[in-house]
Design goal:
6-stranded mixed beta sheet, 3-stranded parallel beta sheet, 16 helices
Length: 370
């Protein structure tokens, strides 16, 4: 089970498997012991035959353990292993045994609005995000400030993922301006005063640490020339806002708009993941700049979703969706906005964003209840 730090992987495994044999590799003494002698895992398992389930928390800290897990799985009367991780970087680098296809991979995301029910608050979600670690904190601002520092210190610096931590810290600040925007690596490199290849590597690190993702352009059966650059998002709006510097020239509504778009992206990714990865998430942008924020395409349906940080719907807000409909009349267009009323404008269903998020459930269609 993959998921960023603070999404509740350990909490979930404790609730789902309370009697499991548990190894937490975030504990320094435990990490040192198993990284020095991975075969200790076999000794522990064989000494506890009554424990049929073994949980390894943050397995990327000691990837050599996967070879031992694989060997134990091949034996008669094999146990069940539950492995959690918040970074695939070290596993990719070391090229270790990835269980030869024996593992079922799942991902854990921040809270969905439907999980929080009546406790969901859109303004709070846009300000502090939906990480359980932050949502339940008494001082969420302090937790968010420490969150990025934790990753720089523990995952980036301690694992030696970058040579210059100062450059990476500046990159984090610079890339925050690309959240919910088309990503042009050369522009970010110029702002950071590093080479483009370095920035490309830094973005890959964020993706491997599950802190960010890129959305590809929807180009299936394209009738127009579309953009070649993906869009970039941090995985949580609270993390984005904690990294985004603010000053007198920054417009609060622009930052809030990007946070809202990121919140919708976060929910759509979780909906796809928890629904079995049957569908895929894209965005659409023509070479002339006409854009649709999200396109969901797969066996469950075909939707185009536009997000507006406004309490009313203007005719120009529908331009991207109407253009997309001309090329793809099969799609179901949705516009999400900050108002309170459902509207139907030029064939486009306009929904309050809060209502859409609270109805979004992995067991239902994207447009259930619309």
């Amino acid at each position: 089970m993959w998921g960023p730090r603070g999404t509740g992987k350990s909490t979930w495994t404790r609730q789902a498997y309370p009697e499991a044999l548990r190894i937490d590799l975030l504990e320094p003494a435990v990490f040192r012991g198993y990284s020095a002698r991975p075969e200790r895992l076999r000794e522990l398992v064989e000494a506890n035959p009554q424990r049929r389930i073994v949980v390894l928390d943050e397995v990327q800290k000691a990837p050599e353990l996967l070879a031992v897990v694989h060997a134990l799985l091949e034996e008669k009367g094999a146990r069940r292993f539950v492995l959690t991780g918040s970074s695939a970087r070290k596993l990719k680098r070391s090229g270790v045994d990835l269980l030869a296809g024996r593992a079922v991979v799942r991902s854990l995301h921040p809270f969905l609005a439907v999980e929080l029910g009546r406790a969901f608050d859109l303004e709070k979600a846009l300000t502090h995000g939906l990480l359980p670690l932050v949502w339940n904190a008494d001082a969420p601002d302090d937790v968010l400030k420490a969150y990025a520092a934790l990753y720089v210190r523990e995952e980036v610096q301690a694992e030696g993922l970058v040579r210059n931590v100062g450059n990476f810290s500046r990159f984090l600040e610079s890339i925050s301006f690309s959240h919910a925007s088309v990503l042009t690596l050369s522009n970010v490199a110029r702002e950071c005063e590093v080479e483009r290849k370095v920035v490309e590597g830094y973005v890959a690190i964020l993706e491997d640490l599950l802190l960010a993702f890129r959305l590809p352009v929807f180009s299936k059966r394209a009738k127009r020339k579309v953009s070649v650059h993906p869009k970039f998002y941090f995985f949580d709006p609270g993390v984005y806002r904690s990294l985004r510097p603010q000053g007198p020239l920054d417009r609060p509504e622009e930052i809030a708009g990007h946070a809202l778009e990121g919140l919708v992206a976060q929910h759509l990714r979780a909906w796809i993941a928890y629904g079995g990865e049957r569908n895929r998430l894209f965005f659409w942008r023509t070479s002339s700049g006409v854009e649709v924020d999200f396109v969901v395409y797969g066996p469950d349906g075909f939707w185009a979703v536009e997000v507006k940080n406004s309490d009313r719907v203007r005719d120009e807000d529908l331009r991207g969706l109407r253009t997309f409909l001309e090329d793809y009349p099969e799609t179901r267009p949705l516009l999400l906005y900050r108002g309170r009323e459902r509207l139907k404008r030029a064939g486009v269903l306009c929904l309050p964003c809060t209502e859409f998020l609270q109805r979004l459930h992995p067991a239902r269609r994207l447009d259930a209840g619309t």
